[in-house]
Each structure stands twice: as structure tokens, then as C-alpha cells.
Design a protein that fits this description.
CATH architecture: 4-Layer Sandwich
Structural class: alpha/beta
Number of strands: 16
CATH class: Alpha Beta
Strand content: 25-35%
Order of helices and strands: EEHEHEHEEEHEHEEEEEEEE
Helix content: 10-25%
Number of domains: 1
Radius of gyration: 16 Å
CATH topology: Purple Acid Phosphatase, chain A, domain 2
Length: about 240
């Protein structure tokens, strides 16, 4: 695991550090916890795909650990479409706050969570075809997104799908967007990812900071069963704002 730091200038009452935890997929989290304890961020942002398919004791323990360090907010990715009735109650007991197309204020800033479009298709059959899941996915809740962008104040959006930025977010009044999903492009050659879900081959939105407002984590696990990560270590991201 590598740790990456980004800085974004902003006119805020105080400087904030946000830890961005993305795409863990129910893997071990001890090294993440060690880093969080050492860095003591102001906010922990879970950017989706914390679970694999089901909410497990492992995921609950991570959320409890994060909440003991800093206010923890959790935005829902495509794998969270597997959340079952009662799972949100279990998550809330950890102290973490799920932002399912919702927002809240922390330290004078507005933090919102745009849920994956797959969240609303969990009861519908998915198409099974070669590379089908690498095509464009369903739209998120654009009505909520427009409402969030119209809120006054400094706004940070947690958005699991990095590809949503170009399609739905770029033109909106949102100061910072934290995203994941692309797993860094899985295989990276000369700092270019090979492919990513919902973007296809040679994707653009896989890693780094873009336009001084979109921060993309490469994620903390490998879930491509037939292609390993290459030149693309798992990544924990810290964003300092102010």
C-alpha cells in the first residue's frame, strides 16, 4: 500500500485533512488503521465499495475504528447495492454516517454523498455479456446532485464513480470531488491505466488530481480475478484542504 498526499488551496476557517478510503472490498485493514492513527485526519471519507457483496463483521470493525479516530462519512458504491435491510442500522451503530444521496455539515463545510446508480438497480437482473460491465453504467440521482450543488458554502462531494465527473459533475458548483471505482486502471503502463469499469480500455479517470478539484483514489484492493494489479499498488489518499 502506498500513501498519497494532495493539497488543494481553499479559503476555509482552518485547514482540514481528509483521508479517502476507497474500494477496500472487505479486505484486511490493519495498515489503513495504522496510517489513520498516525496521521489523525479531521475527516475519514469512505468512497464506496467497502464491502464485497455483503456487510461483514470485518467492515463493521473498520467503520468503528475509523469513527474512533475522526468523523467518518460513507458514500455508497456499486458493491453497496448488495446492502440488505437492517445493514444501515448496523453501520450507524459504528458512529459512521451513511450519505445515501444526502449531505451534512462538518467543520463548516458541506459534505455530500452521491450514491452509485447501481444502488437503484439492485433488484433488477444485470446483463451478462463479455465486457458488459465495462460499458457505461446507470445514471445516479441527478436531481439530488443538482440540489446539492446549489447549496451555499464550500462543498465536498464523495462520489464512488470517477467517470461521473465528466458526464454529470464538471459543470456544477462543487468545490472538491473525491472518487474511486477505477482501481487505477488495474494495469498501469507509463502512468496510463489499461482498463476500468464503466470506462473501458485506456480510461481517463483512474488516478491523481484533475482540474484542482477531482481527486481519484486507485483503491485498496484487487478484485479483477483474472488480471492482477501491475505497477499499480493499493493506495490510501490524504487530501489537505485550506
Amino acid at each position: 500500500m502506498v500513501i498519497t498526499d494532495y493539497k488543494i488551496a481553499a479559503d476555509l476557517p482552518k485547514t482540514l485533512t481528509i483521508a479517502a478510503v476507497s474500494d477496500l472490498h472487505d479486505r484486511s485493514w490493519e495498515k489503513i488503521n495504522e496510517s489513520l492513527i498516525s496521521r489523525n485526519p479531521d475527516i475519514v471519507a469512505i468512497l464506496g465499495d467497502l464491502i464485497s457483496l455483503d456487510l461483514t463483521d470485518n467492515c463493521i470493525s473498520l467503520l468503528s475504528a475509523c469513527s474512533s479516530i475522526a468523523p467518518t462519512v460513507y458514500s455508497l458504491g456499486n458493491h453497496e447495492s448488495g446492502l440488505k435491510y437492517g445493514d444501515l442500522t448496523a453501520i450507524n451503530k459504528t458512529g459512521a454516517i451513511v450519505l445515501d444521496d444526502d449531505s451534512m455539515e462538518i467543520d463548516g463545510i458541506i459534505i455530500g454523498g452521491l450514491s452509485s446508480g447501481y444502488r437503484f438497480q439492485k433488484d433488477q437482473p444485470r446483463k451478462k455479456k463479455l465486457f458488459g460491465r465495462y460499458s457505461q453504467g446507470p445514471k445516479p440521482n441527478l436531481d439530488w446532485l443538482d440540489t446539492f450543488s446549489g447549496l451555499p458554502g464550500f462543498k465536498i462531494l464523495l462520489c464512488h464513480h470517477s467517470e461521473y465527473y465528466a458526464s454529470y459533475i464538471r459543470q456544477l458548483d462543487i468545490d472538491i470531488i473525491l472518487a474511486g471505482h477505477a482501481h487505477g486502471g488495474q494495469i498501469r503502463i507509463m502512468n496510463q491505466g489499461l482498463f476500468a469499469p464503466n470506462q473501458g480500455f485506456f480510461p481517463k479517470w483512474t488516478s491523481g488530481i484533475h482540474e484542482n478539484r477531482l481527486v481519484i483514489s486507485r483503491g485498496l484492493a484487487n478484485t479483477a480475478r483474472w488480471i492482477p494489479r501491475f505497477a499499480n499498488p493499493e493506495e490510501l489518499v490524504y487530501v489537505t484542504v485550506g
